[in-house]
């Protein structure tokens, strides 16, 4: 089976986890602090706060910004539903913003059109699949309206725009260490910020409301328990030693896919000018005429031992948001098209070029079987 993803876990990662398990100190301690520091340094943020996953990171980010019932939050349409769910979980209303057809990320012009008419408490762009959203323009719009930006950088550790890493463009950035990300802690998340007041609030919220500065436990707010364990942090630290190696390999594999898709009926992903794409996923577009056959194509490839899947989700058309707000196809036309055509291809460090060649050949055969042509030219 050519799997969609395989995390890069090696002997030193196993050893790092075992060493911590053997100490018996298992919950948030020196390993978590060291992992936080490693991420803060890597992304160029003053503070990093580890949590148990990126969904928790995003929800705490919104709570730290006082997002609550009656508020509206501008958010991209095209993402893993956690991005929209956390807004609903805070009691606020997501205001969905359609995407740019090239980067699959929040369209700054569409954002501006919404902000002209609607007051929002925060803006949540996503760096979808590890490709940077147009943060220069999104932050300019946000500044004009005085709205804070929370970056959903779940997939974008190491991505950059104009030399500035994902996560530090907005007031808060959130990362995931789920196994489909470049580095993993199993489940895991990190919040980064340069703002000391927000960093303190986030530490209180993640740990039962305990005052992080008091010598003895003192509970100064209602807080959650969203902490990371010591053995997850040890794994994260071990993984961070190889993050650049992993990203460079993923970029090389993406470049090989790009070459294989040149002149084919599939459209390869593109990144924003001046940005560094880290390819959390390699998501290409099927030709429009293959859209009705996408599920059949995915199943046929699985039968051939090749695991592929869709890109990600059209959040306004998921049952929850569609039913609540009455969204329909046509409300977000760019997302309609990209979500319907997207296909995510296998990508992991040990994937071989020959496997890529084989799976692309198989995919094109399968598309042709369903009545499309393999070559545009
Ligand atoms: C864009 C995006 N945001 C948020 C999340 C949630 O991350 P986690 O699984 O760490 O909670 C994901 C997960 O894949 C994601 O892709």
Total domain modules: 2
Ligand species: pyridoxal-5'-phosphate
**CATH classification, class level of the largest domain:** Alpha Beta
Q: What is the CATH third-level topology name of the largest domain?
A: Aspartate Aminotransferase, domain 2
Strand order of the largest sheet: 1-9-8-5
How many individual β-strands? 12
Tell me the helix content. 40-55%
Count of helices?
13
Radius of gyration: 21 Å
Largest sheet: 4 strands, mixed
Distance between the termini: 32 Å
**What portion of the residues fall into strands of 2 or more residues?**
5-15%
Order of helices and strands: HHEHEHEHEHEEEEEHHHEEHHHEH
Note down, in words, how this protein is organized.
The chain is of the alpha/beta class and 377 residues long. The chain folds into two domains: 11-240, Aspartate Aminotransferase, domain 2 (3-Layer(aba) Sandwich), CATH 3.40.640.10; 243-369, Aspartate Aminotransferase, domain 1 (Alpha-Beta Complex). The protein is built from 13 helices and twelve strands. The chain has helices at residues 11-23, 30-43, 54-64, 82-89, 108-117, 135-145, 196-206, 230-240, 243-261, 294-303, 319-325, 333-341, 353-369, and strands spanning 47-51, 72-76, 93-97, 122-124, 150-152, 160-161, 164-165, 172-176, 189-193, 275-276, 282-285, 342-345. It has a four-stranded mixed beta sheet, sandwiched between helices. Strands 3-2-4 form a three-stranded parallel beta sheet, sandwiched between helices. The protein has a three-stranded antiparallel beta sheet with strand order 7-6-10, with no helix packed on it. Strand 6 (160-161) and strand 7 form a beta hairpin. Helix 1 runs antiparallel to helix 8, helix 3 crosses helix 4 (82-89) and helix 5 (108-117) packs parallel to helix 6. The longest helix has 19 residues, at 243-261. The two termini are 32 Å apart. The mean pLDDT is 97. Residues 53-55, 79-80, 82-83, 126, 152, 154-155, 176, 178, 189 line the site of pyridoxal-5'-phosphate (PLP). The site of pyridoxal-5'-phosphate has 14 residues, from helix 3 and helix 4.
């Amino acid at each position: 089976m050519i799997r969609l993803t395989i995390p890069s876990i090696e002997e030193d990662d196993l050893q790092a986890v075992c060493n911590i398990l053997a100490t018996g100190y298992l919950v948030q301690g020196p390993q978590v602090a060291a992992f936080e520091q490693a991420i803060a340094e890597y992304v160029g943020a003053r503070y990093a706060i580890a949590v148990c996953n990126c969904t928790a990171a995003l929800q705490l980010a919104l709570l730290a910004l006082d997002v609550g019932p009656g508020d509206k939050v501008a958010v991209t349409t095209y993402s893993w539903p956690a991005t929209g769910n956390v807004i609903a979980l805070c009691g606020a209303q997501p205001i969905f913003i359609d995407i740019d057809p090239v980067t699959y990320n929040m369209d700054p012009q569409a954002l501006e059109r919404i902000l002209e008419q609607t007051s929002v408490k925060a803006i949540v762009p996503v760096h979808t699949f590890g490709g940077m959203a147009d943060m220069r323009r999104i932050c300019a719009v946000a500044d004009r309206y005085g709205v804070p930006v929370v970056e959903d950088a779940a997939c974008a550790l190491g991505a950059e725009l104009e030399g500035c890493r994902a996560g530090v463009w907005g007031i808060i950035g959130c990362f995931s260490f789920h196994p489909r990300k470049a580095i993993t802690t199993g489940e895991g998340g990190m919040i980064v910020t340069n703002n000391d007041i927000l960093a303190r609030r986030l530490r209180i919220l993640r740990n039962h409301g305990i005052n992080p500065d008091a010598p003895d436990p003192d509970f100064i707010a209602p807080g959650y328990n969203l902490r990371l364990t010591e053995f997850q942090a040890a794994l994260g630290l071990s993984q961070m030693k190889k993050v650049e190696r992993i990203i460079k390999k993923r970029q090389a594999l993406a470049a090989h896919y790009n070459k294989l898709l040149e002149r084919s009926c599939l459209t390869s992903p593109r990144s924003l000018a001046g940005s560094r794409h880290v390819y959390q996923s390699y998501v290409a577009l099927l030709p429009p005429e293959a859209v009705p056959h996408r599920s059949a194509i995915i199943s046929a490839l699985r039968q051939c031992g090749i695991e592929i899947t869709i890109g990600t989700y059209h959040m306004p058309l998921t049952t929850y948001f569609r039913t609540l707000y009455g969204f329909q196809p046509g409300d977000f036309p760019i997302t309609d098209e990209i979500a319907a055509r997207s296909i995510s291809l296998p990508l992991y460090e040990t994937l071989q070029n020959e496997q890529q060649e084989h799976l692309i050949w198989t995919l094109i055969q399968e598309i042709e079987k369903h009545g499309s042509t393999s070559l545009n030219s």
